[in-house]
Amino acid sequence: MKYRDIRLRALEPEDLELLYNWENNLSYWVVSNTVSPFSKYTLKRYVENSHKSIYEAGQLRLMIDHIDDKVSIGTIDIFDFDPFHMRAGLGILIANDEYRRKGYATMALTCLTDYCFKTLQLHQLYCNILANNHESLDLFKKIGFMQAGVKKGLDKNFRWLP
């Protein structure tokens, strides 16, 4: 899938080292709900199984390549794929600061949402974004997502957080 300056492509074995670095970068864990590191072995098996269809695996991860620079700048995911209810979650990572705030995430999300609605025939897409992640909130709102709710937590005294 291609959209102007970027293209979305399937995972390749050569992506293993890059995925290993991104998945184990602690600064991404809070936004990706990761709670423990990934081994190279686990990621290698994930890449080896990435040929399975979204109907079989329930998810799809694509690399985001910058065409002119010939470099992978991030990943975009479809997760929690539910073909019965025709919905799925989306997640995106633009890993290098040099490529952030230049419209590449918007291009990737636009391309993937088109794929989800036109090819997979989904009726609903959603994402989970921290309330203080204004960049991501703005990004998803820009392409038409609406905030449907706020997940509330409890403090250490079991009182609802504002």
How is this structure best described in words?
This protein is an alpha+beta fold. A 6-stranded mixed beta sheet has the order 1-2-3-4-5-6. The protein has one domain: Aminopeptidase, CATH 3.40.630.30. 33% of the residues lie in helices and 22% in strands. The relative contact order is 0.15. The chain has helices at 16-23, 26-32, 40-48, 54-57, 104-119, 134-142, and strands at 2-3, 6-9, 60-66, 71-82, 87-94, 124-126.
Summarize the structure.
The chain is α+β, with helices and mostly antiparallel strands and 162 residues long.
Strands, helices and their partners?
Layout: E1 2-3, E2 6-9, H1 16-23, H2 26-32, H3 40-48, H4 54-57, E3 60-66, E4 71-82, E5 87-94, H5 104-119, E6 124-126, H6 134-142
Parallel strand pairs: 5-6
Antiparallel strand pairs: 1-2, 2-3, 3-4, 4-5
Helix pairs in contact: 1-3
SSE run: EEHHHHEEEHEH
Strand content: 15-25%
- Most strands sheet: 6 strands, mixed
Number of helices: 6
CATH topology title = Aminopeptidase
Shape, per Cα inertia axes: globular
If strands are numbered along the chain, what order do they take across the biggest sheet?
Answer: 1-2-3-4-5-6
